[in-house]
């Protein structure tokens, strides 16, 4: 399954809830969710830990808009809108955690 | 304008994901136009607002990083940033687009006590 999260992990528990639940597949971070994919944040350790069972992606335009494209956490794959579409097509189901 | 009050704008939200940051700036500029004593505090995800290097063309939203730089032209120079919020996000004052005063959350709390009006965004 593709999990999509759009909330900052230090503001809301959306990503934590997703990680607590998600078994396998992929996680795509978009909008304020991309802050989770940045290095040296208090959440970086938890996301890195989740990479063992989830492939983690972050949306490039959202990283760029926030000035965070220069500090993407190691192990995160940065994708554009085309990559977003590919991910949705690749996985039979997707869940948007709002 | 004889009645000048001390206004502090408390910013706790990241930019672009919600409209709060932009709306805060709008009201800050209005308060400045009324020649009030304006200061801005950035705590929690609000510190992300000041991260330099916003490139918003990809999300087709108007960027407002430049507005923070223009605040000085409105005599708004009191920008306070919570050190703990910066650290939790892997940021330092060097990552920010404008000069700010970095202080502890406790110091910010004391500063809030000196205000007449607090507006939270």
Provide tags for this entry.
heterodimer; A: 98 residues; alpha/beta; Hypothetical Protein Ychn, Chain: A; five-stranded parallel β-sheet; 4 helices; 5 strands; 32% helix; 22% strand; B: 121 residues; globular
Descriptive account of the structure:
The complex is a heterodimer of chains A (98) and B (121). Chain A has one domain: Hypothetical Protein Ychn, Chain: A. The radius of gyration of chain A is 12 Å and the shape is globular. With 98 residues, chain A is α/β, with parallel strands linked by helices. The mean pLDDT of chain A is 97. Chain A starts with a strand and ends with a strand. In chain B, strand 2, helix 2 and strand 3 form a beta-alpha-beta unit. Chain B has one domain: Hypothetical Protein Ychn, Chain: A. Chain B has a five-stranded parallel sheet. Chain B starts with 5 loop residues before the first strand and ends with a strand. The model of chain B has no long low-confidence stretch (mean pLDDT 96). Chain B is an alpha/beta fold. Chain B contains four helices and five strands. The interface between A and B is medium-sized, with 25 and 25 residues.
